[in-house]
Write a structure and sequence with these properties.
The complex is a heterodimer of chains A (about 375) and B (about 280).
Chain A lengths: L3 E10 L2 E11 L4 E5 L6 H9 L6 E6 L2 E2 L10 E4 L11 H13 L9 H4 L1 H21 L14 H13 L5 E5 L7 H18 L2 E6 L2 H7 L2 E6 L2 E6 L1 H6 L4 H6 L6 E7 L4 E4 L2 E7 L3 E7 L4 E4 L3 E10 L4 E7 L5 E6 L12 E6 L5 E3 L5 E2 L1 E3 L2 H8 L1
Helix pairs in contact in A: 2-4, 2-5, 4-5
Chain B lengths: L1 H37 L3 H4 L13 H11 L2 H32 L5 H12 L7 H11 L5 H5 L6 H12 L3 H9 L4 H9 L4 H16 L3 H6 L8 H11 L5 H32 L5
Helix pairs in contact in B: 1-14, 3-14, 4-8, 4-11, 4-13, 5-8, 9-10, 11-14, 13-14
The chains are: A alpha+beta (about 375), B mainly alpha (about 280).
Chain lengths: ~375, ~280
């Protein structure tokens, strides 16, 4: 496999274990997002791939080559930093050409007047200039080439940082929260531009973000990390619809998934506050029933509750419902027409799609839950 | 509309301006006097009156005497060679050392930095004797090497640059590493170009100190051809038997002027450097 392969990497800083046996494969040309709350170790993992940080144990391979002991300069990776890290003393043109100069010219050829003395150096410099122009045109920053970073806006700096990364066709492309310093509107447009650039460049990409909506919209696959452990790796669809860990389910999706304390009796029937919800577990015990807001809907029967608060979002209506059984407030995404019908304090019943409900053990593991046949459900309810 | 505000601003600033003007006059007084005396004939220097503007100008006479009796140009050239020789080596050695102390992680870094700080506490007169003996044994006395070499490793420079480099973002250096630069390229291509305020500040400290230094040149130099500007004034005074103050002040002015001019040019950056390195009182 010639993408990026991280095998059983652990990292500790003094007494703190930052990464625990993390293994991850990024296929050639794949766009993989590394998400997790801040401090989960995702940036450390990326810096280890980049070669800016050593490993305590484990190996890193890029393009089929073991680079665990290789320094960053020789790894053929490009990286976009959160604060862009442009060279403040160089113009945009010089900033973008630095990686090419460092790779295509020998140290003596990089001396200030080498271009005057040697025709071959002049030819190389010409080629570098053309590549820089091409990259700049692709990013729409052709007009800014002679400015210094201090005279650019945040979005423009971000493009220059992207330009510096793509200009040399790296075998791996790393991005550390590149959109976090942009305003909300720019973030959304740049998001799709990055995806388009990735499609064009085709390098294996690792994209670190704490923003689950970026991860969902941009990635081929998502890796969710928490406390130095990789919880789940999968397509956005799998991560959203079929999370294997309650922490993954909670982290992905906005508003976040509803969690309802539940208990399975000796027969395995899952009950919320003594009322069966129509799911059967393999073993009795406490559990957490997790349902996405859009999988809940109003019904004549089901979980009883009272509307606490309504949020009208235009395309949908969020109803915050305090359940009668148990103390939880759940959020339910309804179609906007309900706005005229519903009032705070109104008693309602909520039902959910049993095929899409998720059940987790108290230790966050996913539990298998089978929906009862609807006939049986009626009996249980009766 | 802007007028009342401006007037109020000026009124509020007035006491400050007056105090600053008085203070700078007190500091400038000896220099003003030096300029004035350098233009006066011998008779007027010793007259009882305190006139700033001489009644009779003796500029040509005084300055002519200086150029006549001692090779001023040689002394100034020596000053330039020595000061810039020292400065170039100081930067060459101190910048990589300061970068390593500020940004690289290695065992013993704090201890090494402790030694640097310790070095700041040693006055250079203490090391003069052993250095002199060393140069004498090596047969290097009375040479540019003897004037330059002892000052090439400046702990002050290491300290100053280290404080400044620490403020540079780590990601800037990481970006350079990813772009393919080695540590030496990073030092000269990324770190130093972004540390100009600190470099200017240090350059001024260094050049002023060594241009005016009399102690060390007096110890190691015998040949008149190698005299530094400060020694040159000394030589002029002994040649002139210390009587002709007009000419002496003219010599002093010639020696001081290059520094003053250089400082005026670098003033802005110097102040930037001082504030950014956190050295201000």
């Amino acid at each position: 496999m010639d993408g990026i392969v991280v095998s059983e990497v652990s990292k500790r800083f003094g007494d703190t274990q930052v990464l625990r046996d993390v293994s991850l494969e990024v296929g050639r040309g794949e766009f993989l997002s590394l998400v997790g709350p801040s401090g989960c170790g995702k940036t450390t993992l990326m810096r280890i791939v980049a070669g800016l940080e050593g490993v305590t144990s484990g190996t890193v391979c890029i393009g089929g080559r073991d680079v665990t002991a290789t320094r960053a300069a020789d790894r053929d990776v490009a990286m976009v930093f959160q604060n862009y890290a442009l060279y403040p003393h160089l113009t945009v043109r010089q900033n973008i050409s630095v990686p090419l100069m460092m790779r295509r010219l020998r140290p003596v050829q990089r001396l200030p007047f080498a271009g005057w003395l040697s025709p071959s150096v002049r030819a190389t410099l010409g080629a570098i200039g053309e590549d820089v122009e091409t990259a700049a045109r692709m990013l729409g920053i052709g007009a800014l080439l002679d400015r210094k970073p201090a005279h650019l806006s945040g979005g423009q700096r971000q493009r220059v940082a992207l330009g510096r990364a793509i200009v040399r066709n790296p075998s791996a492309f790393l991005m550390d929260e590149p959109l976090s310093n942009l305003d909300a509107a720019l973030r959304v447009t740049t998001r799709s531009e990055i995806v388009a650039i990735h499609r064009r460049v085709g390098a294996s990409t690792v994209y670190v973000t704490h923003d689950q909506s970026e991860a969902m919209t941009m990635s081929d696959r998502i890796a969710v990390m928490m406390q130095g452990v990789l919880l789940q790796v999968g397509t956005p669809d799998e991560i959203y619809g079929n999370p294997q860990d309650l922490r993954v389910a909670r982290f992905i999706g906005s508003p976040s998934i509803n969690q309802i304390a539940a208990h399975a009796g000796p027969d395995g029937l899952l009950c919320v506050g003594g009322v069966s919800v129509g799911l059967r577990l393999e073993k009795p015990g406490n559990a957490v029933l997790a349902v996405r807001p859009e999988d809940l809907h109003l019904a004549s029967q089901g979980l009883a509750g009272r509307i606490e608060h309504l949020e009208y979002l235009g395309e949908s209506l969020l109803a915050h419902v305090r359940l009668t059984e148990g103390a939880e407030t759940v959020i339910c995404r309804l179609s906007p027409e309900n706005r005229t019908r519903l009032r705070p304090d109104e008693p309602v019943h909520l039902a959910f799609d049993h095929g899409r409900a998720l059940v987790f053990a108290p230790d966050n593991r996913r539990l298998a839950a089978r929906p009862l046949p609807s006939a049986l459900r009626e009996v249980a309810r009766g | 509309m802007a007028n009342p505000a401006q007037t109020r601003g000026l009124l509020a600033d007035l006491p400050r301006l007056v105090i600053l003007t008085l203070a700078s006059l007190i500091i400038l007084a000896p220099f003003i006097w030096m300029v004035s005396v350098s233009m006066k004939p011998q008779s007027e220097v010793f007259s009882g009156s305190l006139d700033l503007i001489p009644s009779e100008f003796a500029i040509a006479e005084n300055y002519g005497k200086v150029f006549d009796r001692v090779p001023v140009a040689t002394y100034l050239l020596n000053g330039v060679i020595v000061c810039f020789g020292i400065l170039i080596f100081q930067i060459l050695f101190a910048v990589p050392a300061a970068y390593a102390l500020a940004k690289l992680r290695f065992a013993g870094r704090e201890v090494l930095f402790g030694f640097v700080v310790l070095g700041l506490l040693v006055p250079y007169q203490t090391t003069a004797l052993p250095l002199y003996l060393g140069f004498a044994q090596a047969g290097l006395l009375d040479s540019y090497t003897a004037l330059i070499a002892p000052f090439t490793c400046s702990v002050f420079a290491i300290f100053l640059f280290r404080q400044f480099f620490r403020a540079l973002p780590d990601d800037l250096i990481n970006a350079a590493r990813i772009d393919g630069m080695g540590e030496f390229s990073i030092v000269w291509r990324v770190v130093l170009p972004n540390a100009w305020p600190a470099a200017t500040a240090f350059a001024i400290f260094s050049v002023v100190a060594h241009w005016n230094d009399l102690f060390w040149p007096l110890i190691v130099i015998q040949t008149g051809d190698l005299y530094t500007p400060a020694m040159g004034i000394l030589a002029f005074r002994s040649v002139e038997a210390g009587e002709d103050y007009g000419a002496l002040m003219a010599a002093a002015l010639l020696v001081t002027a290059p520094l003053v001019i250089a400082f005026l040019f670098a003033q802005r950056r110097f102040i930037e450097g001082i504030t950014m390195t956190g050295l201000k009182g």
